[in-house]
From TrEMBL, chain A:
Protein's UniProt keywords contain ATP-binding: no
Main location: membrane
Protein name: Peptide/nickel transport system permease protein
Family membership: Belongs to the binding-protein-dependent transport system permease family.
Residue ranges of the TM segments: 24-44, 113-138, 150-173, 185-202, 243-269, 289-315
Annotated source species: Murimonas intestini
Keywords: Cell membrane, Membrane, Transmembrane, Transmembrane helix, Transport
The keyword Transmembrane appears for this protein: yes
Residue span, ABC transmembrane type-1 domain: 111-312
One of the GO biological process terms: transmembrane transport
Membrane topology note: Multi-pass membrane protein
TrEMBL record, chain B:
GO CC annotations on file: plasma membrane
Coiled-coil region list: none
Keywords: ATP-binding, Cell membrane, Membrane, Nucleotide-binding, Transport
Name used for this protein in its record: Peptide/nickel transport system ATP-binding protein
An example Gene Ontology biological process: peptide transport
UniProtKB/TrEMBL annotation, chain C:
Gene3D superfamilies, sorted: MetI-like (1.10.3720.10)
GO-annotated cellular components: plasma membrane
Record's subcellular location: Cell membrane
Protein name: Peptide/nickel transport system permease protein
Keyword field contains Transcription regulation: no
The keyword Nuclease appears for this protein: no
Family: Belongs to the binding-protein-dependent transport system permease family.
Length: 338, 336, 294
């Protein structure tokens, strides 16, 4: 029950930093890939941005001139490379076609809304979903289990945007307790967050339950019981730490779902977040915003997954050992070279 | 049963019966098993895989998964007190303290995300009501006792080999100096060279602590090495019981004889081993009469009619067979 | 030869018994059977909708606009006076076939890629798994939105948009389970008797990694239906006048304050289908992996 000594902890920290830096570097090709994929999709989108900027009255000559000005007449490879150059070497996501604003500042302006929703949702998912799953697993096939699982089953089956509409009908229109849409104080976030988090809570509960059930059947739980520990101690000291390891991944993936869910939820509640920014840009064919938005959310998701992996490695000694192994082999190599 | 007449035996199992329910089928795992054991003694439970040996051990510790398992009847008397009737809280005080168990598979018996030292110290802190520091000291001592340096206290199970893990499991089982040790095939998962070491460790510690031990195994070599008494288990029943000498020198039951027949003997120049023909019976559909009758070369019509009772053969030796005389081929093999 | 024939008969018998064992376990699971029956009924209703719907799905009746649920119109009427119940029945065709088609397409493609990648490993594995990483870093709904914006609306385009997003998951799943069985000894045994590689994959590897796929397909159909509904809700995907459920919700959104029945019933329909698929999927998972159940 002694805490790790300073030296031990320092060792792990250095390893972790190395790993984190490696993963951050690995994000560069992933983001490059995302940019190429999304650029290509947008390239093949029908419609001519130049024509829509100039409006219906524009002459073909004026449109051609505008196209040349925007570089739209260039071949695919040239445009792709210049986009990648602009994004990755100048950290510039370009300018919106229709709004007099750079995409980056548009995104940063909207980030707080999306981030708030995503953060509250993930918090709700963990704080409500995990205990629900544990309760269900501990009382397997009992009443509590059935109730939890019915809630969870409903949660993963109901479309989030529909639930949002129903919540609005009930709490905003009928009872008048909460605002139906828009942004403002915290009360504006309640309905969107509940609607968006429900699926996450449900899948968290389901995963926690099945992970717990699997762990409860392990031999080492029998060992713990044979030692004379109480069921409570077995649950919290032996079962839960093991069950939580796979659940961390679920939380990470849930973040991806959350980010996707906010895209739709923002449009239900007219919240000016990144999702709304991106989807309405698709309808307006404002491609720089679409590409920037997707790239930004992709980067955000990659960062979250990195965080998940770091936590994972910190919790599971087997994975931590892999880094230690790496370091040892690295040292050996250094010795052999030196 | 046991001819020990000193009064109540240390542990006595009386008519233990356990069944499992699986997908609507009832599996009779343990049927009317009785035996007893004194402190410092070792009893070997011998039989094929699936004969119900592990179920017997787990019922003594009351760690059977219920459901699907259910104890239907019988008593397990620890110093005269029926532990099957104890409350869960009282039973917890016995587990790990008075009775503990070494599990078969060391690979899965340890919690993968907990330091091995803590896994040992946990039980000590619980039963001996000592501080964390003292428990850690004792756990280190236990590690050293099974031949693992105390400096590895803070390692995790994945950092150990199979044999080392089994030693950790042994250290854990013996940490509170239990009065009864249940060793469930403690060496099956190990290499032959390590088997001997692990067996030595168990034997020495047992002698040191004067622990009673039930050794579950299908390896007659281990029985010969560590056991005082032997119970041969077949299809959830004790078919023969006796001292090591009685069983090894004068095996009576055709099944026991068969077990010895399937053992290689370097001293005789038999060209091939004689395995027991056939398969153990389906425990959800046990034959009427003697369970071994379908595989028994000496079975007669009467064997298949009614259940066979245990009969005394003199000494502590008892056997569940009505055709003993025919079963023993070598003249003069039986008792007189 | 006669001997090998006997062996193959025996093997087939064992396979059948395994299949029937799974079916037996599944049939004991009431929730799963309920899900299965509901899906079956919905399928029948969707197929027969042309004959059994009380009104034509696009028959307008301006005199009865926004009528609430009644015996005449079970789920009420919409802003054009069209019978919502009939539209839901007919719309089941679009929603169900979207979900099934997109999931099956993505699973087949994902399985092909996943099994090849998982079996051969090496360079192909590295490259394709990096691609999978990239595709998975984009939130699924955003990818579907972008692709369907590019392809335009319409049934087949929506199917394609939805299936592309599902491929990476199947690849990952199958690759993982193949990597798991690849080192098993029975594969070596198969190799020693000169089993060709495609045969090895199809006959020996796939059957042993199929159960997670079956479960993920069942659950995947539900998810795809949810995603399709979200797409139509945003204004992409299948468009009105085709009575797809999500599109109906999208159209009803303007009137939902005053005529809540217009959003209630299409949403319930979606929830019912997805719920049934999830119940069936849960049951299948338990039946295929009995150690999780008991």
């Amino acid at each position: 029950m002694r805490l790790p000594s300073f030296r031990e902890r320092k060792g792990v920290f250095i390893l972790m930093w190395k790993y984190i830096i490696k993963r951050l570097l690995w994000m560069i090709p992933v983001l490059l890939g995302i940019s190429i994929v999304i650029f290509t999709i947008m390239y093949f989108c029908p419609g001519d941005p130049a024509a829509s900027i100039l409006g219906n009255s524009a002459t073909p000559a004026a449109i051609a001139e505008k196209r040349a000005e925007m570089g739209l007449d260039q071949p695919y490879m040239v445009r792709l490379l210049s986009y990648l150059n602009q994004v990755f070497l100048h950290f510039d996501l370009g300018d919106s076609y229709f709004q007099n604003q750079s995409v980056m500042s548009g995104i940063l302006y909207r980030l707080p809304y999306t981030a708030t929703i995503a953060f509250i949702c993930i918090l709700l998912q963990i704080v409500i979903g995990t205990p629900l799953g544990i309760t269900a697993a501990v009382h397997q096939n009992g009443l509590a289990d059935r109730i939890c699982m019915v809630i969870a089953l409903a949660g993963v089956s109901i479309p989030g945007f529909w639930l949002a509409m129903m919540l609005v009908l009930f709490f905003a229109v009928k009872l008048g307790w909460l605002p139906p849409y828009g942004v403002g104080g915290l009360q504006y976030f309640i309905l969107p967050c509940v609607a968006n988090a429900f699926a996450g809570i449900a899948s968290q509960a389901r995963q926690t339950r099945s992970s717990m059930l699997e762990v409860i059947r392990s031999d080492y739980i029998v060992t713990a019981r044979a030692k004379g520990l109480s069921e409570r101690e077995i649950l919290y000291k032996h079962a839960l730490p093991n069950a939580l390891i796979p659940i961390i991944t679920v939380v990470g993936n849930g973040m991806g779902m959350m980010l996707g869910g906010t895209v739709v939820i923002e449009s239900v509640f007219s919240i000016p977040g990144i999702g709304m920014y991106t989807t309405s840009a698709i309808n307006n064919r404002d491609y720089p915003i679409v590409m920037g938005g997707v790239l930004f959310l992709g980067a955000l998701f990659s960062l979250i997954m990195l965080l998940v992996d770091v936590i994972y490695a910190y919790v599971d000694p087997r994975i931590k050992a892999q880094y230690e192994g790496q370091q040892k082999s690295w040292r050996r190599r250094k010795k052999a070279n030196g | 049963m046991n001819a020990n007449k000193k009064g109540t035996p240390f542990i006595e199992v009386k008519n233990l019966t356990v069944h499992y329910t699986s997908e609507g089928k009832v599996i009779h795992a343990v049927n009317n098993v009785s035996f007893s054991l004194e402190k410092g003694e070792t009893l070997g439970l011998v039989g094929e895989t699936g004969a119900g040996k592990t179920t017997i051990a787990k019922s003594i510790l009351r760690i059977l998964p219920e459901p699907p398992a259910q104890v239907d009847g019988g008593e397990i008397l620890l110093e005269g007190k029926n532990i099957l009737a104890l409350s869960n809280d009282d039973m917890r005080k016995i587990r790990g303290r008075k009775i503990s168990m070494i599990f078969q598979d060391p690979m899965t018996a340890l919690n993968p995300v907990m330091r091995i030292g803590n896994q040992i110290a946990e039980g000590i802190a619980l039963h001996e009501k000592v501080s964390g520091k003292a428990a850690e000291e004792k756990a280190k001592k236990m590690l050293e006792m099974v031949g693992i340096p105390g400096s590895r206290y803070r390692d995790y199970p994945h950092q150990f080999s199979g044999g080392m893990k089994q030693r950790v499991v042994i250290a854990m089982a013996l940490a509170c100096s239990p009065d009864l040790l249940l060793a469930d095939e403690p060496t099956t998962a190990l290499d032959v060279t390590i088997q001997a070491q692990v067996l030595d460790i168990i034997k020495n510690l047992q002698q040191e602590l004067n622990t009673a031990m039930i050794m579950i195994t299908h390896d007659l070599g281990i029985v010969a090495e560590v056991c005082d008494n032997v119970a041969v288990v077949y299809a959830g029943e004790v078919v023969e019981y006796g001292s090591r000498e009685e069983i090894f020198d004068h095996p009576w039951h055709p099944y026991t004889v068969g077990l010895f027949g399937s053992l290689p003997d370097i001293n005789s120049d038999v060209e091939r081993l004689s395995p027991i023909a056939g398969m153990p019976p389906d425990p959800s559909n046990l034959p009427e009469g003697c369970a071994f009758a379908p595989r028994c070369p000496y079975a007669a019509a009467e064997c298949r009619k009614a259940a066979v009772e245990l009969k005394s053969l003199g000494g502590t030796h008892i056997c569940r067979c009505i055709r003993q005389m025919e079963a023993v081929q070598a003249p003069g093999a039986g008792h007189n | 030869m006669a001997n090998s024939a006997a062996v193959s008969v025996k093997v087939r018998k064992k396979k059948e018994s395994q299949f029937s064992l799974v079916m037996k376990r599944l049939s004991k699971n009431k929730l799963a059977m309920a899900g299965f029956v509901i899906i079956l009924i919905l399928f029948l209703l969707a197929i027969l909708s042309s004959w059994i719907m009380p009104y034509n799905y696009d028959e307008m009746n301006m005199a009865e606009r926004f009528a609430g649920p009644s015996l005449k119109h079970l789920c009420g009427t919409d802003e054009m006076g069209r019978d919502i119940f009939s539209r839901l029945l007919y719309g089941a065709r679009a929603s169900l076939s979207l979900g099934f088609l997109a999931t099956i397409i993505s699973t087949v493609i994902g399985m092909a890629i996943g099994s090849v990648v998982g079996y051969f490993g090496g360079m192909a594995d590295t490259v394709i798994m990096r691609l999978v990483d990239i595709l998975q870093a984009i939130p699924g709904i955003l990818l579907a939105i972008a692709i369907s914006a590019c392809l335009g609306s319409g049934f087949m385009n929506t199917v394609i948009a939805l299936s592309i997003g599902g491929i990476p998951m199947t690849v990952r799943l199958l690759r993982g389970s193949i990597m798991g069985v690849r080192k098993m000894e029975y594969l070596e045994a198969a190799q020693t008797i000169n089993c060709s590689v495609p045969r090895l994959i199809i006959k020996h590897i796939l059957p042993n990694s199929i159960s997670p796929i079956i479960v993920s397909v069942t659950m995947g159909i539900g998810n795809t239906i949810l995603m399709a509904a979200s797409l139509s809700y945003i204004g992409l995907g299948v468009q009105p006048p085709t009575p797809e459920w999500g599109a109906m919700l999208s159209a009803a959104r303007t009137y939902m304050r005053d005529y809540s029945h217009m959003v209630l019933f299409p949403g319930l329909a979606i929830a019912l289908v997805v719920l049934s698929l999830n119940m069936l999927g849960d049951g299948l998972r338990d039946a295929l992996d009995p150690k999780l159940k008991k």
